[in-house]
Amino acid sequence: MSARRFTRQHGVALIIVLMAFALGSILASGMLSRQSIMIRGATTYLAQNDARSLALGAEAFARQFLARDLEGGGNTPEENQEGSQGTDQEGTSTRREVDHPSEEWARSALALPVDKGVIEAQINDLQGRLNLNALTEVDGSINQLQRNRLQRLLRVLEIRNVRPETFVDWVDADDERTGAAGAEDSDYMLLDPPYRAADQPFVSVTEVRLLDGMTEAAYQRLRPHVTALPNRDDMLNVNFASTAVLRSLHDRISQGQAESIRQTLRESPVESVEEFLALPEFAGLGLESDGLGVSTNFFEIAARVSVSGTVYRLVSKAQRTRNGTIRILSRDTGRSQLITKEQVQASE
Q1: Alpha helix (H) residue ranges in 159-316
Q2: pLDDT per position as a tens digit, 76-109
Q3: What's phi and psi for 92, nearest 5 deg?
Q4: What global pTM score does this model have?
Q5: Domains along the chain?
């Protein structure tokens, strides 16, 4: 074998070795990259799982808090001293069913430091808002009281492109328009993309976005004042009513009067509907007590957990029964801006 031929074969072998080495390096780099992605994915999953567990723990704590409030343990110190519980003729302890913003559960949000993060939670009242599912009765007829309140609320909020009949057609079971302002499948199927009216109660307030004529700006103005409870109860807890909701009670309640009423309720919540109707701002209006109350059975539990660089949000809709049972009706993990109240550290 000549020296030139040996050199050529040696060079080819070296090239093959180098190519094999390069290929091996590429494969190893790809394996390391995939392994790194898998590790990051597993770490994120574990962090999310831990955060979810902490959020559910915050929900459980809030449920205990609400149950204790029903027994008279969640009021202000002044109320506890005066006695938020009474005794009936048979000697059985009974709670005065009054809920208001000065109660411990409603006053502030709770911040609880945990390892590598913090849990923030607050409880919101849902019965100081208009229940959209109360627009129709069980037999499908319109609840005129609730319909008129919604009409006034839309007017106060300057929402002109959507009428109460549009809401009614969304929740009623038939496919016929409620008056000229209604909207049914024949209207929604012309949209792009097309869809149908629900023809059932609102599951979430976010469905309001789908109503014919509703804009995002109008929805954002309306959302704080309405709710979608899983029943047709039109009972409004006046102690939690916003200024706009207070104005929805009567055509002749002005903005100034509503602000005055709200300030009065903040400083001195009413303990009965009769006490509420006796406020001087209602003099001469002939406002009826129908659909008004001073207690709350439906709540929103909002929790935000921030741990190890991961943020997990949970909003739970809860119902409190008369025997103190707290039922979770739904959970939502897609909302932001959850904690809106002044925070109190758990250590305090």
Answers
A1: 164-171, 185-188, 216-222, 243-247, 255-267, 273-277
A2: 434 433 433 333 333 333 445 899 999 999 999 9
A3: -85, 135
A4: 0.81
A5: 49-126+296-345 (3.30.1300.30), 139-224 (1.10.40.60)
